[in-house]
Structure of Alpha/beta fold hydrolase:
Amino acid sequence: MTGGPVSAAADLVEVRPGYRTRVVDEGDPGGPAIVLVHGTPLDLRAWDPLVPRLSPSHRVVRFDARGHGSAAAVPVPDATTLAADVVAVLDHLDLPDAHVVGHSWGGEIAQRMAVEHPARVRRLSLVCTRASPFPPFGDLATTLRAGGADLDALLGRWFTAEERAEPGGAAGTVRAWLAAADVERWAEALEMIAHFDDLSELSRVAVPTDVVAAELDAVATPEHMAQMAEALPDATLHVLRDARHLVPLQRPDEVADALLAPSSTHRSRSS
């Protein structure tokens, strides 16, 4: 496969007992492996704009995390189990290690993988994510379960008014994904973000790490991501100017530049 949109009808594989999901393996089969872990309540399609930037030089792997996309029927467990799922995907493809990229909720999963399975992570990229609790998402989970979520307000965090009004644009695509999401699974993932607390663990990450922040992100703020970069032994902080939370969809070229930069640049931090 050369990279691009993925059919919802892609074949499912059982990567662990009770967890069947889509696993998409594309790009250069002889290139270094890079695995992409999406945010909530999205699925592997959230990487569609980024994959063509990576696939000419990399073997690009993506999958639907538990509770999302093709695995929507599977409850969202703890971060340790979700990190082990990424290892199981690598095992399924006979990959000894990979450059692991996580966006938002997926970035928390990627952090856990780097801490608990260090031999399987060659390089780590954390995109618009957090390492400390974000309690407001616990309230949002309660609102979702009560049927009171305002999708327009949620989209307003990620897109300008002009982008939301654009017919056929990314905002419309994301609106459709939000409307189709399993509310309980989404709420479970939000509760994980509300309580996730790994900042003190980041000193254990021994690989070069990209920390990619968006200037206008109100949850994974540049200030918080700068704290994460300081806590990591070998990190480069990138702040994408005038950008919002969904940078893999909205600013794929700049995200690809950060992910593909030579690892030797990680000796210093920059923004």
